[in-house]
Write a structure and sequence with these properties.
Number of helices of chain A: 15
Structural class of chain A: alpha+beta
Low-confidence stretches of chain B: none
Helix content of chain A: 25-40%
Number of strands of chain B: 6
Number of strands of chain A: 21
CATH class of the largest domain in chain A: Alpha Beta
CATH class of the domain at 116-326 in chain B: Mainly Alpha
Oligomer: heterodimer
Shape of chain B: elongated
Largest sheet of chain B: 2 strands, antiparallel
Strand order of the largest sheet of chain A: 8-9-10-1-11
CATH architecture of the domain at 116-326 in chain B: Orthogonal Bundle
Chain lengths: ~575, ~325
């Protein structure tokens, strides 16, 4: 129990640190911090219509790793734990969900004991059992979840599951007792972030009968307030109320307001804005096109919500193929890109800020530094990014012997990403490469750039925190365990694996159990060491702009999951 | 011209000279050629305009560039200062030929310079693809129509297969596939993003539309007395084709040229608009319309300008095609039109 409290207190400390910094800089439109208001039944009903250019690929909550669908999973699936509904600091707090309470910790933090709530049913009417819980954890490995190797590799038996996913058994890692309705999770070592990892969608509980491979467009029964009714990635995703849902925790899985949530795909960003302006849609998912920002910022200012994010836009470079298997080539890209220019493409300084550290500002472990700005080096970094250094970049390309090589830039085909790609092509051409832009559908870009068999050299991607800890950026995105060659679930897109830094990250994680402050200091050092190797070029930290229709009420922003879709009111 | 004068002219001049003389007096021909001449001249002056007049590189992003407008320095991409201060808008037309005459696009590039370069790409691809199509159509049409038998059957079925696909659907499918992998046929290799790719694709998809009428015409000519007479005198096949068949097919081919070039240009623009034709940073009118799509609300001229250029060029080519058809038509000539 002591360790359990210790874990929670350190987590709360991290959350408080982020919230004090992040909320302090949020716009006036950000909701006030606090728990979720009580349910108001008179606003229930109606259909909330969301619009996006493309779907986010598979609907399988254990495989999908996009902010677009994670935003929906919070109202549909449940894990043993979850991040709390509410706003501000509340949304970083882990609360019991399908578990009756937070786990009892023993054995030096290596054993966590949960008690499953009774009486909860899946949307197909079958009760949630401890067998489903065990099967769900095994399924993480069977479907090769993108975080299987980084979040859940600490479960006893996970190592074997990672080697042979198809036959994964966690008999010693997840021990269930059907009579007592308990689940004992055994870890190889104590993990300071385990509660957060259990609160994200990859750890949700599915029926034991769920397919042991990526379900794709097949709908898996849910436990939350809503269930998926239909999914056609080219057309729409429909969510309706789960007939077997009954609120068990207002903080974990509150009752939702709309009767139906309709997510329409295939609508261009500019058409999305028009639809929201005309009250034909309640919310536009994609980044607002640059030529509509001024319009909505002036004519529809009251419907615009701008909130800070702990996220980044970055350029993963494949360190295993030319030209970026050469560190000088990667550093050249870091020096060459004009981050202020890319901020302009994103919509200006009100919506993003240039950075070059891996950990975003106001995040645990973040250090204000930039090794890739004019007049600085990774060894002698400046405090912040000021300007690109094209001359140095050209020299580095020349020194690397990679000048004249062909470089393909894979971007998503929406306006903003495509513009980023065109800009990047111009920069890479100017420093000596033969660059081409390859825009592909946002439906597949995120998984396409992960798969090494596609031989992607450089891409434009985004990362939004899964949970508020440095390991969620450094370990997840650049740890050796996150690199799976020839897999669509290889979130370490750069294919970067530095054994020495991996060991340091493991050390920082262990240190976090006892001394979070020292651990964060260590993460800050790791950040700088990683960026000296430049497997990626970090570009800027975005802010979240939500544009909602005039008829949509009760906008609540979560630092963890962004806008709560199920809490929108249209009545 | 009276009927008598017309008849005298027909017997005293070759058909080609008569057609040229008629075209020289045809208003449609004069207007369309003038429009085409201006567009072609301006487009091929693109490097001169960029280098010596506007002093800009239309293929390089200039997101942080500034220009002087009415004595004041202004950023090419202006940040909003109203409301919530959201968004960045490219500068609009300055109407100053030396500096962002038609304004900037989302990458801060001079739209006028890109428009001229785009015209060059569209005209080169459209014309080359059109001529490529005409050449192979003529070849296939004459071989199939003259040889008949199994050669005709095989070639005709291949044309049928290509014809079975809607032309744009086929062009888009081929472009999507070849855009990433390129095209290798023997020693010929066209890399991904090569200008030659859209030329080949567009040239191929229109072949049935020209080859089949030519084949039909050759089949009819093959049965005419003068061809039979040539066969009877023991003339070689090549002699018959070049002396008897080809001269009689050429009027139709000449009429096809402006129409197919016009269609090829439109197809190129469509493919480039869909990002599967000319690849960035190179410009064509289609890619510029695509760029303009993202600026339709704030800077509509970015999309409108290339759109108007396409309209004028295609209309001029079609108008010229009509004039050529009338000039080569003996009935029209006989009427004295």
């Amino acid at each position: 129990m002591h360790r359990h409290i210790k874990v929670l207190s350190s987590f709360a400390g991290i959350a408080a640190l982020i919230v004090s910094a992040v909320v302090g800089t949020s716009s006036a439109s950000a909701a006030a911090a606090g728990p979720l208001a009580p349910y108001d039944a008179k606003h229930a009903g109606g259909t909330v219509t969301l619009v996006a250019q493309a779907a986010a690929g598979t609907l399988d909550p254990k495989v999908n790793y996009t902010a677009q669908f994670w935003q929906l999973y919070q109202a549909t699936y449940d894990g043993l734990l979850t991040f709390s509904y509410g706003s501000g600091a509340t949304t970083f707090v882990v609360v019991p969900d399908l578990a009756e309470a937070l786990p009892v910790s023993s054995n030096g933090g290596k054993t966590l004991t949960f008690k499953l709530r009774s009486g909860i049913k899946f949307s197909n009417g079958k009760p949630v059992t401890v067998a489903d819980v065990k099967a769900s954890f095994e399924r993480i490995f069977k479907v090769s979840s993108p975080t299987a190797g980084s979040f859940y590799n600490g479960i006893v038996g996970a190592a074997a599951c990672l080697k042979t996913p198809a036959t994964c058994k966690l008999d010693k890692g997840i021990v269930v007792n059907a009579a007592k309705n308990t689940i004992v999770m055994n870890l190889v070592a104590a993990d300071e972030t385990i509660l957060s990892k259990l609160a994200v969608p990859h750890a949700v509980i599915n029926p034991a009968s769920a397919p042991s491979k990526d379900a794709g467009t097949t709908i898996i029964p849910t436990t939350g307030a809503y269930m998926f009714k239909s999914y056609n990635p080219n057309k729409s995703l429909v969510m309706v109320r789960n007939p077997y849902y009954k609120e068990w925790s207002h903080a974990a899985q509150p009752q939702g307001y709309p009767d139906q949530i309709l997510f329409k795909f295939g609508i261009t960003p500019t058409a999305q804005v028009t639809a929201v302006e005309n009250n034909q849609a309640n919310w536009a998912y994609d980044p607002i096109p640059a030529d509509r920002l001024n319009e909505i910022g002036t004519k529809y200012a009251s419907q615009v919500h701008v909130n800070p994010l702990t996220a980044m836009w970055y350029l993963p470079m494949n360190v295993n193929i030319a030209p970026f298997n050469n560190v000088k080539a990667r550093q050249a890209v870091n020096y060459a890109i004009d981050r202020a220019a890319m901020v302009k493409i994103f919509g200006g300084t009100q919506l993003a800020g240039p950075v070059c550290s891996f950990l975003p500002p106001n995040f645990p472990g973040h250090v204000d530094y930039c090794g890739y700005t004019k007049g600085a080096t990774p060894a002698k970094p400046a405090k912040a990014w000021t300007a690109p250094d094209l001359e140095l970049a050209k020299q580095l390309v020349k020194d690397s012997g990679t000048a004249g090589q062909e470089v393909g830039i894979v971007v998503s085909d929406d306006d903003v990403n495509k513009q980023m790609g065109v800009y990047l092509q111009s920069v890479l051409t100017s420093i000596g490469y033969k660059a081409t832009v390859k825009p592909i559908s946002g439906n597949i870009q995120f998984t396409y750039i992960q798969n090494t068999s596609n031989k992607v050299q450089i891409s434009v991607s985004q990362w939004y925190q899964d949970y508020p800890a440095a390991s969620d950026f450094l370990d997840v995105l650049l740890g050796c365990a996150s690199f799976t060659p020839n897999s669509d679930s290889s979130i370490n897109m750069s294919g970067y694996c530095n054994k020495a830094l991996d060991a340091k990250m493991a050390k920082a994680k262990t240190l976090g159990l006892t001394d979070p402050v020292a651990a964060n200091k260590m993460w800050g050092q790791i950040d700088q060491e990683v960026m000296a190797d430049a497997p990626v070029a970090v570009v800027f930290t975005p802010k979240q702009l939500d544009f909602i229709s005039s008829g949509t009420k009760n906008y609540i922003f979560s630092l963890q999951y962004k806008m709560f879709v199920s809490q929108l009111q249209v009545k | 011209m009276s009927l008598k004068d017309s008849s005298e002219a027909i017997f005293s001049e070759s058909p080609g000279k008569i057609a040229l003389r008629i075209l020289a007096k045809d208003k449609r021909s004069i207007i369309s050629l003038s429009i085409l001449g201006v567009i072609i001249f301006l487009s091929f002056m693109a490097p001169v305009f960029s280098h010596y007049v506007a002093d800009t590189n239309p293929f390089e992003s200039s997101l942080n560039a500034t220009i002087i407008v009415h004595g004041a320095e202004k950023p090419v991409l202006e940040a909003s200062t109203t409301g919530l201060g959201l968004g960045v808008t490219p500068i609009g037309p300055t109407w100053n030929i030396r500096s962002y005459f038609l304004g900037a696009d989302g990458q801060g590039r001079d739209v006028m310079a890109r428009l001229l370069y785009g015209g060059r790409s569209t005209l080169i691809i459209g014309t080359t693809a059109g001529l490529l199509c005409i050449f192979f159509s003529l070849l296939i049409g004459i071989i199939a129509g003259y040889r008949r038998g199994w050669i005709d059957a095989v070639l005709s079925r291949i044309l049928d297969i290509i014809w079975a696909f809607p032309v744009y659907l086929l062009a888009i499918s081929l472009s999507v596939v070849l855009l990433t992998s390129g095209l290798s046929i023997g020693f010929i290799h066209l890399g991904p993003g090569s200008f030659a790719l859209p030329i080949v694709i567009i040239g191929v998809v229109y072949i049935p539309y020209v080859a089949r009428p030519i084949r039909a015409q050759v089949l009819a000519l093959r049965e005419r007395e003068f061809v039979r007479a040539a066969v009877g005198t023991g003339a070689k096949h090549s002699t018959i084709i070049f002396r008897e068949i080809l001269p009689n097919v050429m009027p139709s081919v000449i009429v096809f040229i402006p129409i197919i070039v016009s269609l090829s240009m439109l197809t190129e623009s469509a493919l480039s608009f869909l990002s599967i034709g000319v690849q960035p940073p190179a410009a064509s009118w289609g890619t510029i319309i695509n760029d303009g799509l993202a600026l339709l609300y704030t800077r509509p001229i970015v999309g409108l300008a290339p759109g108007l250029m396409i309209v004028f060029t295609a209309a001029a080519l079609n108008l010229y095609g009509d004039a050529v058809r009338d000039a080569l038509d003996p009935k029209t000539r006989a009427r004295g039109d």
